[in-house]
Amino acid sequence: MKRRHGHFWFILTLIAVLVGCGNSNVSGSPDGESPQTEDGAFPEKPITVFVGFPAGGSTDLAARTAAEVVKKYVPNGAEFVIENKPGGGGAVAATDVVNATGDGYTLGFSPFGPFTLTPHYGNTTYSYDDIIPIAQTVTSSYIFAVKADAPWQTFEEWLDHVQEQPGSFTYGTPGARSGPQVAMEALSLETGMDLSTVPFEGNAPAKTALLGGHVDGIVLSASDIVPSVENGELRALLYFGKEKPQGLPDDVPTADEMGFVSFDFGFFFFGPKELDVTVRDQLSEAFEQAMNDPELIEAYEKLYLVPSYASPDELTTLIEAEYVTNEEIVKAAGLDQEE
Fold first, then answer.
1. Which pLDDT tens digit goes with each residue over 138-181?
2. How far apart are CA 259 and CA 240, in angstroms?
3. Which PROSITE patterns does the record cross-reference, listed alphabetically (predicted)?
4. 311 and 148 in contact (C-beta within 8 Å)?
5. 3-state secondary structure labels for all residues of the chain
6. How many structural domains is the chain composed of?
7. Is there a single domain that holds both residue 62 and residue 85?
8. What is the pLDDT of residues 277-325, one digit of tens each?
């Protein structure tokens, strides 16, 4: 795994700049009236939001939390009805939204992965061009963690160990060729590490395997790691994003601080390509107002998520950049050759 690709790292550096320009923390002025379409008719009924992950997970909770607050800023106080459609790493729900009508009553909520990573494996019938981004509400990233009694106190100590003993360290992920594995593959490409990946079917089995001593570390989403760091079960060694979530110790370095490529990903609402632009703009403005609501900000922080609004245009830039980043990593790590 000691491979370095000059073109690969040039692309990642360029994309890191683009992503940094496209994302913004919560800002704006929620003091105006809720946006209206020209005839004031939308919405006349509840809006269904497909979530491609199980109820109770971080994606589901992020969607429900935003839906509960944003109705204050949508005309008529319209309800957002969350419908879970897990499967294909979010691809099942994404496909249903892509094939929906553009009247604004069928939307999706998802992390970027089903549009920026899954298509590189040939498992989708859609591309990111088949959707209309509406609003990002939060960002998150992955955390690399070991058991609290592991011999490595810092990321630097761990890095020295794995570089001295290549191939000896095993780490678990929530699935084969998942986002956490892609992040770790990129780190391996940059540092020359040789690690062994052990994919599990979900976050809980991966964490259980680590606590049971069956793997040496895990890479999972922040919301799945931080509670176990707070209760003393796990020690976080690296946060793959830039802005750390509430609850993560100050001494845990970020990938950006260590000079590595960051993996910040957003969770966003979106509609089918045929979504009426007026409806898109109305919903986007409502979400921007909601993102300045202390109720939503506090609720997201309690979920170990970072509140962060992005507009439709900003989302287009972010998604395109992450798509190219993932393509480079998938090819360099040989993940596109795996089944």
1. 999 999 999 999 999 999 999 999 999 999 999 999 999 999 99
2. 11
3. PROKAR_LIPOPROTEIN (PS51257)
4. no
5. CCCCCHHHHHHHHHHHHHHHHHCCCCCCCCCCCCCCCCCCCCCCCCEEEEECCCCCCHHHHHHHHHHHHHHHHCHHHCCEEEEECCCHHHHHHHHHHHCCCCCCCEEEEEECHHHHCHHHHCCCCCCHHHEEEEEEEEEECEEEEEECCCCCCCHHHHHHHHHHCCCCCEEEECCCCCHHHHHHHHHHHHHCCCCEEEECCCHHHHHHHHHCCCCCEEEEEHHHHHHHHHCCCEEEEEECCCCCCCCCCCCCCECCCCCCCCCCEEEEEEEECCCCHHHHHHHHHHHHHHCCCHHHHHHHHHCCCEEEEECHHHHHHHHHHHHHHHHHHHHHHCHHHCC
6. 2
7. yes
8. 999 999 999 999 999 999 999 999 999 999 999 999 999 999 999 999 9
| Parent domain of 100 | 6-140+266-337
Same domain, 156 and 217: yes
Q: Is residue 250 part of a domain?
A: no
Per-residue model confidence as pLDDT tens digits over 65-95: 999 999 999 988 899 999 999 999 999 999 9
Name the residue among 175, 254, 265, 161 with its Cα closest to residue 218: 175
pTM over 0.85: yes
Strands 265-272 and 106-111 turn out to be antiparallel
The closest alpha carbon to 63, from 77, 49, 73, belongs to 49
Distance of CA 318 to the CA centre of its chain: 12
- Domain termination site, one of 224, 239, 254: 239
CA distances from 82 to 5, 44, 93, 134, 140 (A): 43, 17, 12, 16, 21
